[in-house]
Amino acid sequence: MKIKELFLRDINRHINPAVTVDSFSDETVKAEIQEYIFTDELIEKQYFFLDKVFNSESGKTGVWINGYYGSGKSHFIKFAHYCLSSAYTEAAFEHYTEAVKNYSIGLSDVTLSNLAAMQKQIAKSLSQTIIFNVEAVAMTNTSKKDRLTHIFLNQLNRHRGYNAVNIPLALYLEKHLDKLGKFKQFKDLIKAELNADWDKHALDLFSVKLRKVLDLAGQIDKDIDVENLRLKLTAEEHITIKDTLVPELVDYLADKPDNFRLIFMVDEISQYIGSDVELLLNLQTIVEAIEEPCRRRVWLVATAQQTLDHVVELISNSNTIVDADAVGKILGRFEVRISLDSHEASFITQRRVLDKKTSVVPELDYYYNVNKEEISNKFVFLNANYKNYASDKAFILAYPFVPYQFKLIADVFDAFANSGYVIKEVKD
């Protein structure tokens, strides 16, 4: 048998070097669901997350997920998104269920019956997720104290099919027409009269043909005060959490069932915040403000490289003048905290790339046990960090590589990074 025939998955397939939360091609989705490697820890933590969002009756609605490069934060929230999305939930839970069948966790809430019940609960809730990398949608034309407010509102508007950049345009024109059931009619009229795709060219039309756009909107809805609407669209924005973001969320929830959840999944929030106290306080205020009016149906999930305590410590130790009590409140807003360890990154990589077909496992097991002494003597290292095969299971997992090679390649990239040949992110 040839080496390439040992593996469970085609070794010539494309493998994304990193999971990104804004990539949803059919090929990417299929790979990220089917190739998600569940360790015992991840089985527990994925269930813990879903259970908290849907079954906790008290507490805050913020979730903080931390872990360094290679720990799988983005893949964790993306798999959760697949579990929650009606388009992908069946495939995601099928893969999750297979993982639970094959792992022995002992005393745990993660049983096959509980997992099946969770899947039914999610299906009935009709829940939705809004997932994005905060740096990819970041804005610089608003003050830091409400910049995240704008980002969250823009992402809500994108989710609703409205403009994700111009908030007045989304709320005063598009939402109004949508409520009347005439938004599509408006876009069709724009196409017919101006030969333009509204979804792609709304901002250009807003900039150079606003009067014509509003005239066409007036044809759709005779009650529109075109001049007053023009003034509202061109006036300076006054967007706040209390008066804009929260009412928009409450309005969106109005026709949703009580068990509905809208879950914002924000990737790499700590990199965006850094040591900026205004951004941190903006995030804290959002989580605080949405809980009661939205009746715990809106959740904010943030991933970060650092623990929340470390982010707060970083800001407190900066040269910025901070209100310690105000900054400290953020710790209470994210009661649900999940820490993902990166020490299993090599194991997960091996499983994803080197998983073997069930049919070849006995043959590899036999080969190792027959040649165990020779193999043990062939790879002997003075450096304790470099490992030989520890068992037949380790041999089956790593073959045709030897465990020391995974550590060696990491050390090579460490040397590259230390010499400035590659940046740290490439190494990780």
Summarize the structure.
The protein has 428 residues and is α/β, with parallel strands linked by helices. It has 22 helices and 5 strands.
Descriptive notes:
With 428 residues, this protein is of the alpha/beta class. The chain has helices at residues 26-34, 40-55, 73-84, 89-102, 112-125, 147-160, 167-179, 183-194, 198-208, 210-220, 226-234, 241-253, 269-273, 277-291, 308-316, 324-333, 345-354, 361-370, 372-378, 392-398, 403-418, 424-427; strands spanning 62-66, 128-133, 262-267, 298-304, 336-339. Helix 7 packs antiparallel against helix 11 (226-234) and helix 18 (361-370) crosses helix 20. It is elongated, with a radius of gyration of 26 Å. It starts with 25 loop residues before the first helix and ends with a helix.
Set out the fold topology.
Elements: H1 26-34, H2 40-55, E1 62-66, H3 73-84, H4 89-102, H5 112-125, E2 128-133, H6 147-160, H7 167-179, H8 183-194, H9 198-208, H10 210-220, H11 226-234, H12 241-253, E3 262-267, H13 269-273, H14 277-291, E4 298-304, H15 308-316, H16 324-333, E5 336-339, H17 345-354, H18 361-370, H19 372-378, H20 392-398, H21 403-418, H22 424-427
Parallel strand pairs: 1-4, 1-5, 2-3, 3-4
Helix pairs in contact: 2-5, 3-4, 4-5, 6-12, 7-11, 8-10, 12-14, 14-16, 15-16, 18-20
Shape: elongated
Give me the number of helical elements.
22
Q: Hey, roughly how much beta strand do the residues contain?
A: 5-15%
Low-pLDDT runs of 5+ residues are: none
SS-based structural class? alpha/beta
Estimate percent helicity. 55-70%
Enumerate the strands of the largest sheet in spatial order, edge to edge or round the barrel.
2-3-4-1-5
What is the C-alpha radius of gyration, as a whole number of Å? 26 Å
Largest sheet: 5 strands, parallel
The span between the termini is 34 Å
Mean pLDDT: 89
Succession of helices and strands? HHEHHHEHHHHHHHEHHEHHEHHHHHH
The overall strand count is 5
